[in-house]
């Protein structure tokens, strides 16, 4: 069951996300017992997680320290000098302890920069699986999750695309036409056929890539993700969303910006979404950001997806409305097959990307992979 640590849904999801690997560790439980009552706003979030990150690194608990550095970095603004320090701490500690797979790192040439990628090797594997994330993705987090795919018939390639991780740090901004980085990675590794998993916002990216890159033979949306604007709409009161739509569609940018900026003052979740959007896209106002997000939509592309598709969904996903599921199924009118799994409070995994029961999602993925 999803644990309500603070009562703030956004905070609670991130706490679960950054401590899930160590949920049974007595030290981590004690850490949470100490800091959860202190997590009131972005400042207290950073101060407490960063303090614990340094403490755990000094003690030699590099895996835990890595997660804590990632948590500390999460809400910081790009101009904050501590953001880069926390990011470096996250990756430094991650590669000190990571040994789930034999792996090799790459820099895949892309535009005037590169896409960082890691290949994980399963002994005697005959197939290739490509995995990528979404809105606030770092490939190192996905590398940890890949342990659930150990000893399968797949070698696994994980990469940061434009707007993600080190690719973002190197100047590559978020894009909607995700077939471009996926095709670049497939070309670089000289692959004939791949299966692709998109995580979180990547649930849209994987659909977009599959629509236009036919070397993808199986498509896994972990979880479903139809529209970038859904992430703002879900959990927004109906009257607020109606005003959002009215102002946005009328092109009243100044009124729209004032409306969103006012909402952000008392809404941690919306503040993070908008500020993170600025960071990854380079946009500077809510109106321009939402115009950018509007390009991230499955509308019109479902008919081009003819691969076998696995759709995962959580009934209480705070970012993606479960009501999108039948629409996605209907629009995948030419899919080779559609397999669907909805996670509920009864089964566990009802949260975004099954944050509280991620093993359940990978059980379904492994069944689908065959």
TrEMBL record:
Q: Which InterPro entries match?
A: AB_hydrolase_1, AB_hydrolase_fold
The protein's Enzyme Commission number: 3.7.1.19
Could you list the residue ranges that cross the membrane?
A: none
Per its UniProt entry, which superkingdom is the organism in? Bacteria
| Group of enzyme by EC | hydrolase
- What is an example of a GO molecular function annotated in this UniProt entry? hydrolase activity
Gene3D superfamilies recorded for this chain?
acylaminoacyl peptidase, alpha/beta hydrolase
Instruction: Identify the residues that the record assigns to the AB hydrolase-1 domain, covering every copy.
Output: 134-334
Q: Which UniProt keywords apply?
A: Hydrolase
Protein's name in the database = 2,6-dihydropseudooxynicotine hydrolase
* Annotated organism of origin: Clostridium luticellarii
């Amino acid at each position: 069951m999803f644990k309500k640590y603070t009562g703030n849904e956004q905070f609670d999801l991130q706490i679960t996300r950054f401590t899930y690997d160590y949920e049974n560790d007595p030290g981590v439980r004690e850490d949470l017992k100490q800091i959860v009552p202190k997590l009131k706003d972005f400042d207290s979030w950073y101060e407490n997680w960063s303090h614990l990150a340094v403490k755990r690194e000094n003690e030699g608990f590099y895996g835990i320290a890595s997660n804590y550095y990632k948590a500390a970095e999460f809400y910081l603004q790009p101009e904050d000098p501590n953001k880069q320090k926390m990011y470096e701490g996250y990756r430094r500690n991650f590669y000190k302890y990571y040994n789930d797979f034999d792996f090799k790192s790459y820099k895949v040439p892309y535009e005037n920069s590169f896409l960082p990628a890691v290949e994980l090797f399963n002994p005697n594997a005959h197939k290739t699986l490509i995995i990528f994330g979404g809105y606030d993705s770092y490939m190192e987090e996905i590398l940890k999750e890949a342990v659930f795919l150990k000893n399968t018939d797949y070698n696994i390639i994980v990469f940061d695309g434009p707007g993600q991780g080190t690719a973002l740090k190197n100047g590559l901004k978020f894009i909607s036409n995700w077939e471009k980085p996926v095709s670049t990675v497939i070309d670089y590794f000289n692959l004939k056929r791949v299966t692709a998993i998109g995580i979180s916002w990547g649930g849209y990216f994987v659909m977009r890539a599959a629509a236009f890159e036919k070397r993808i033979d199986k498509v896994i949306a972990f979880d479903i993700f139809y529209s970038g604007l859904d992430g703002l709409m879900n959990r927004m009161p109906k009257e607020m969303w109606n005003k959002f739509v009215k102002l946005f569609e009328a092109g009243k940018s100044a009124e729209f910006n004032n409306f969103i900026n006012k909402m952000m003052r008392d809404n941690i979740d919306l503040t993070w979404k908008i500020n993170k959007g600025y960071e990854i896209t380079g946009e500077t106002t809510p109106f321009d950001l939402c115009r950018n997000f509007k390009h991230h939509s499955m509308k019109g592309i479902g008919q081009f997806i003819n691969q076998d598709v696995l759709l995962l969904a959580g009934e209480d996903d705070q970012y993606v409305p479960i009501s999108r599921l039948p629409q996605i199924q209907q629009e995948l009118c030419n899919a080779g097959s559609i397999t669907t799994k909805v996670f509920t409070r009864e089964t566990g995994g009802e949260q975004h990307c099954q944050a509280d029961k991620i093993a359940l999602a990978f059980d379904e993925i492994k069944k689908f992979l065959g």
